[in-house]
Amino acid sequence: TNVSRVTLKTLISHYEKPRNVGSLPKNDVDVGTGLVGAPACGDVMKLQIRVDENGIISDVKFKTFGCGSAIASSSYMTERVKGLSLEEAGKIKNTGNCTGTLHCSMLAEDAIRSAIRDYKSKRNNMTNPKQKGF
Ligand code: FES
Ligand code: FES
C-alpha cells in the first residue's frame, strides 16, 4: 500500500526545517487549492498542488496555523506527493503516528484531497474542449 512508516527522526527533521512552505498562484488553471480546518483545535491548513499535462503533481506548497505536529506532517506530505499522479496522491494516508484526539496530522491528508478536488472541478469547468477531459 501507500502507507509507509514515518520515523520520529524524519518528523523532527521536518518540524525543524519545514519543506515547501509558501503559496502557488491560486488562479492558475493547473493549480488546485485545498483549505481545511481542524474542528478539534480550530487550526487551518492551506495546501496547493500544481499538476502537469500528464496529471502528475509537479509542485506543492503549504501554509498552516497548526501546531508543530501539523507542520511536520504537512511538510513530509508535500515531499511525498511530489511526482505522484492525482490518483496516487489521493490514496496517501495520515502521515503522522500520533493517536491523539486533535488529529493534527490528518490536516495534511484532508488538505491534499481538498486540493485535488479543487483542481478537478477547475478542469471540469473549463470551456476549452481541448483542455477539458484532461
Ligand atoms: Fe491544531 Fe495540532 S493542535 S493542528
Ligand atoms: Fe496533535 Fe497528536 S500531535 S493530536
TrEMBL record:
Write down the species: Gymnopus androsaceus JB14
Q: What is this protein called?
A: FeS cluster assembly scaffold IscU
- GO terms for MF: iron ion binding; iron-sulfur cluster binding
Q: Which residues form the NIF system FeS cluster assembly NifU N-terminal domain?
A: 10-124
**One GO-annotated biological process of the protein:** iron-sulfur cluster assembly
